Description:
mainly alpha
Amino acid sequence: MSRSLKSFHGGLLGTPLKWIIVNVIAWIIGVLWITPFIGIFMTSIRPFSEVVNGWWNLSPFTPTLKNYIDALFNPMFSLLRGFLNSFIIVIPSTLIPVMLAALAAYAFARFSFPIKNYLFITILFLMAVPQQMTIIPIFFMLNNMHLLNTYQGLILIHSSWGIPWIIFFLRNFFSMLPVELEEAARVDGATNRQIFFKIVLPISLPGIISAAVLQFAWVWNDFFFALMLIFDPDKMVITQMLPRLKGQYQVDWGLLSAGSVLAMIVPLLVYATFNKYYMGGFRGWAMKK
């Protein structure tokens, strides 16, 4: 009896202690993670003379939006133009692969056909190919197709690069959906196309939005493909224009910091807007496992 009481009291004392330790560790990680962003933000809203001795020094503190205005309307590399170019690239580069990959993923999840497993293994191998390994043949291919230094060429590459991992992502998501709903619709005379568009897609919204959010963020933050395939300053995306704000003879840290904050705002807003669906998609994966 005494041993049972000791275990009971130990459990009462151990659980709160464990909870406190986990929360303290989480707060420490959170503070360490957000500290660089706070430094960049403080540098972006203050004159350089105030942050030269450390952004944490708040005496004096005179916030200003001058760096943001200068970054958006820079006469050589305007981030406002970079925003527009990035949106021109990122929206079709998100919609096209998600739509095509959803169709292919559903086929892999529900139908049997020859060389199905070999095709899926090929897709897994394509996910492992590094970008640097493919850039030379991609460059010459786009050049031969007269798509080099064009929006269409970069959209084509981002869409092609996103399709394999989105197929893998959505195939696993579709596999956990109840088959009974589709079978009932098929008994009622629904075709495969009707089942997919009217039943599967609506209930798969969390998974599809999760894939779209990730694809959007990866395309928006891409620098390598844009650097290799876009040369015209008027067509450069925001990640290309941002490093060009540093100046030729000295680095304007306030201007670069303001540009960095502006560049990261869009992915953050997308995550915040679709957070409910985004987390729902990953919770579905967790429940499946």
